[in-house]
Amino acid sequence: MNQDTFPPAYITQVAQDTFEGIKTYFRDANISLETYQQYKTGLVIQETGFFDTSELEGGLTALVRYNIYTNQTTQLKESFRQYRCWTFPRGCYFKVLNRYNQKNHGLVTLLQIPVHAVPYFALNKHPREAEIAEDSKQRFQNMMALPPRPELNDEYWIKRTAFPVGINDDGGLFFEFDYGKQQNLNPNYVRKGFFKRLFKR
User: Are residues 75 and 85 in contact, defined by beta-carbon separation less than 8 angstroms?
Assistant: First the structure.
């Protein structure tokens, strides 16, 4: 399916709602190779839980870096200001723009997309996607040579960002929409097990 399937006015609106005022946020996690390989370029996924990211960019603190592009943030979470934290709400959708490896570390680039744009991005590749994917790759390569930010090399922050975005505690995708093949694995699933372990003392 191509862009002609969608009305021009809809495509224009989708582009505005997705790319206008876009920002980049960062998150690192030690995830398995099997989990990492589930992030296939072009796949639309959903994260059903809340999850933290930071606007601070620095060297990696874990094996995998998530570069997350979004224009849907409002204000930083005041209680986590030291981390320059933005917490994504439950139920956000993302398109995987690339997966890249360098020196035993991995990059996953995610573009947040509005719910009404899921069919478009699952069935089409917008021209801005390649631009963002290249920007993300360059950022990642630059950060590989730098030490971690002290604010983010913190045990509590590392624990809060330990789980993979869009993949549940059992290693399966919450949701995937891949070129017409839609699968919703567990839309009501929340990370109770993860947060129970996080706050266990």
Answer: no
Q: Could you give the C-alpha distances from 8 to 19, 70, 122, in angstroms and in order?
A: 16, 23, 17
State pLDDT tens for residues 11-70: 999 999 999 999 999 999 999 999 999 999 999 999 988 899 999 999 999 999 999 999
Say if CB 29 and CB 162 are below 8 A apart: yes
pTM score, whole prediction: 0.86
In whole angstroms, what is the distance from residue 113 CA to residue 9 CA?
17
63, 144 contact by CB (below 8 A): no
CB atoms within 10 A of CB 195: 14
- CB burial of 163-172 (b: ≥16 within 10 Å; e: otherwise) equals bbbbbbeeee
HSE (side-chain half, CA atoms, 13 Å) at 160: 19
3-state secondary structure of 78: helix
| Ranges of residues in the chain whose predicted pLDDT is under 50 | 1, 178-201
Q: What are the φ/ψ torsions at residue 124 (nearest 5 degrees)?
A: -140, 160
Instruction: State which H helix or E strand residue 86 sits in.
Output: strand 85-88
Would you give the end-to-end CA distance of the chain in angstroms? 51
